[in-house]
Amino acid sequence: QVQLAESGGGLVQAGESHRLSCAASQSPATFVAMGWYRQAPGTQRESVAQYMYAGHTDYADSVRDRFTISKDNTNGKLTVHLQMNNLKPEDTAVYYCSLWSLGGTQYWGQGTQVTVSS
Fold first, then answer.
1. Is 109:96 a contact under the CB 8 Å cutoff?
2. Which residues does residue 63 pair with via DSSP β-bridges, in sequence order?
3. DSSP β-bridge partners for residue 96
4. 24, 77 contact by CB (below 8 A)
5. What is the 3-state secondary structure (H, E, C) of the chain?
């Protein structure tokens, strides 16, 4: 069972930068994708940025030129980071970390709130 621990949520001003991190316990040797989704009140959860095992990345059009996802092994745990630049009020949402295993299971973190004030 993979558990995902998110960190880095908070309140930021529009135009500022912020970074989220997500560490996977019992880090799998391989995976399909690990990344971030977000959900604002009254909306469906949407994919923000994904890091594919093969090494390429995928971004939502709304964040493509502002957000960057990266992967490392912080403290021996598979970890993804989401660097968010030039944040906008419409980026306000609960951000969820996700990992797709090779077996087809999608694991979720508990979510972390990011609020961007104008």
1. yes
2. none
3. 37
4. yes
5. CCCEEEECCEEEECCCCEEEEEEECCCCCCCCEEEEEEECCCCCCEEEEEEECCCCEEECCCCCCCEEEEEEEECCEEEEEEEECCCCHHHCEEEEEEEECCCCCEEECCCEEEEEEC
Which single residue is written with the structure tokens 């799998």? 28
pLDDT digits (tens, 9 = 90+) for 93-118: 999 999 999 889 999 999 999 999 99
Residue 28 structure tokens: 């799998």
Which residues, listed in sequence order, are joined to residue 68 by a DSSP beta bridge?
83
Q: Is pLDDT at 40 greater than 80 in this prediction?
A: yes
Q: Rounded CA gap, 29 and 70, in Å?
A: 17
The pLDDT confidence band at residue 81, using thresholds 50, 70 and 90, is: very high
